[in-house]
Automatic annotation (TrEMBL):
SMART domains: CRAL_TRIO_N (SM01100), SEC14 (SM00516). PANTHER family: CRAL-TRIO DOMAIN-CONTAINING PROTEIN, SEC14P-LIKE PHOSPHATIDYLINOSITOL TRANSFER FAMILY PROTEIN. Coiled coil: none annotated. This is CRAL-TRIO domain-containing protein. Residues 79-239 form the CRAL-TRIO domain. The lineage of its organism: Eukaryota, Viridiplantae, Streptophyta, Embryophyta, Tracheophyta.
Amino acid sequence: MAVTSQEAIHQLATLMEQVDELLKVTFKNMHQGYPMATLVRFLKAREWSVSKAHKMLMDCLNWRIQNHIDDILCTPIIPADLYRGIRDSQLVGLSGYTKEGLPVFALGVGLSTFDKASVNYYVQSHIQINEYRDRVILPAATKKYGRHIGKCVKVLDMTGLRLSALSHLKILTMISTIDDLNYPEKTQTYYVVNSPYVFAACWKVVKPLLQERTRKKVQVLHGCGKDELLKIMDYASLPHFCKSERNGSSSRVSSAGAGDCYSLDHPFHQQLYSYIKNNAPSQGYALLPKQGSLHVDVPTGDTEGTKITGMIQSKLHLIGDDSKLPSSLSVLHVDVV
């Protein structure tokens, strides 16, 4: 007999009541006052299988404990110049909010170089942004809009995407695995903009592999996506690379100072960095190594992200050297979803 969603939630909640106190503490840090919504996220990620969702959640809680994730917002990346280098090479930022109050995160997929620090630093920075989103940004949005807001939207800028991205697949796979297994169902929609030929070729391979619930979340927009995105957010919340129709323009060159949400000088990153420094124990902060990254174990699992990465790698090798692609292909876009 099939289990209804309410029965599944009840069963998983009952199982959670039986875990030890240490697991309950880190679970509380996760759910931020909305435990049932968190249970639903894990159930959705495992197609409403209570046993699979329970295992996924237990693995997540143990990963958090073993890697001190609850304390990661007390561990600044120092010195500031190192963190600035990370921000210049791992392009991500908060550009604003949708009309419904969901945070809008911008990601410079094509122009991120991941070449200013070790892999551990980029993983640490990514998790810190995840945790700051879940513990600070989303609760603040919930309070402002008077209803629970537990998800965000992401705008992925593919400007500059080349076959050299193969060198980034290792770190992207690590980040994807962490998100798949420990932060499931935190993104409502992925909007893909400024898509070159390389992305179009990969998307044709990747799309059939995605689960239906994931596939429905991805919308590939024409050009910079401005017209479509303005239906769900105000102009001020558009990422800077969506405010220009110049195809192929650099998302860094087209930015305007403080309007570049990737920059360490942007209010989001200033507030995030200050939050982490202010939460670091004063004595411990003074004793932190000047360039010692926090090592976080990447959980293992057969996730969509790892499967897709392998397929992308194979597809890119088949395409060959992008320097040989005809220039007319560099501006081709996949069909608008």
